[in-house]
Every structure is written in structure tokens, then in C-alpha cells.
Backbone:
């Protein structure tokens, strides 16, 4: 069962990275795609009620725009979830403040392993959904930033996630 979840998750992550690299092929005068940061994330989700943790990367694709692939592992409420997110985010600038609000959305591939009571067998589902993201980023030092975000899910994914974490600038 775990092997199937890992295989499905790896295939989904490979697909997301392939889409990220192919979606932003641009002319020579455009800004090159570069890795801006990578980090760790943790938080809580509702429906299912879970503790969630994972990691993400931010790719600069245009001024103020990033594409952020991430992976979330969720545990609780009788199931284990692996979510692969592929989000496009716009980072706004505030005058006289280091805080950077951001918003955007994207696609999520979610694999859930659901624990059934005996005599039933456990089951696994893989679903697609959409995310709407609203968050903020705050510089902590010259090497990393803190962030917090609210994620709203549409489809067969978590309805709401409150996430926070740390991004290391690369």
C-alpha cells in the first residue's frame, strides 16, 4: 500500500516538474527561470482533520511571479494523504514594509490511504483538485524567510489548510 502511494506521488511530482519546466519556455529576452528558494512547511487541514508537513520550492518565472511545486504529507482522521501541489503565485510589494503578501492558485494531485475498520480492507484513492492560495512572506535574516498561508481546496482535496514554514533563499 505504501509503495503504491510513493509510486503515485513520485509520478505526480515528476509530472508537475515536467509541466513547470515546459510551461515557461520563453524567448531569449525574457527573464530566465531560476530557483528562488526551497524550504519546509507544516500546518493543519480541515476535512480531513490532519497534521500536515512537507516541503516546497519557488521558481522565479517573471517579475513578482513564482511557480511553487510542493509536497504535503497529512496524517490523521483515519487516513494518510500525499498531496502534490503546483501553484502559480503573484508576490505583491508593500511600501515601507518587508512583508510580501502573495496570492494565486494551482493544481493538486492527492493520494489518500484510508483506514477501514475490520473486516473491510483499507482503500486508496487518487484525486485532482484546485487550490486558491493567500499568504505572506517575512524576511527573518538575509538567508531565509518565514511564511504563512491559507489554502482553500476545490474538488477531492482538503477543503482548508493553514500552513506556515521557512524558505531558504538560494
Residues:
Amino acid at each position: 500500500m505504501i509503495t503504491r502511494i510513493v509510486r503515485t506521488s513520485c509520478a505526480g511530482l515528476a509530472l508537475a516538474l515536467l509541466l513547470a519546466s515546459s510551461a515557461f519556455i520563453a524567448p531569449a529576452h525574457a527573464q530566465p527561470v531560476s530557483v528562488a528558494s526551497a524550504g519546509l512547511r507544516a500546518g493543519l487541514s480541515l476535512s480531513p482533520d490532519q497534521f500536515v508537513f512537507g516541503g516546497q520550492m519557488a521558481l522565479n518565472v517573471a517579475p513578482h511571479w513564482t511557480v511553487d511545486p510542493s509536497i504535503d504529507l497529512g496524517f490523521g482522521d483515519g487516513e494518510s494523504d500525499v498531496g502534490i501541489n503546483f501553484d502559480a503565485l503573484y508576490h505583491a510589494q508593500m511600501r515601507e514594509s518587508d512583508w510580501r503578501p502573495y496570492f494565486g492558485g494551482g493544481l493538486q494531485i492527492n493520494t489518500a490511504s484510508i483506514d477501514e475498520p475490520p473486516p473491510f480492507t483499507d482503500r486508496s484513492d487518487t484525486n485532482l483538485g484546485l487550490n486558491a492560495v493567500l499568504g505572506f512572506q517575512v524576511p527573518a535574516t538575509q538567508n531565509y524567510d518565514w511564511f504563512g498561508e491559507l489554502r482553500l481546496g476545490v474538488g477531492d482535496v482538503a477543503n482548508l489548510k493553514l500552513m506556515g514554514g521557512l524558505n531558504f533563499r538560494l
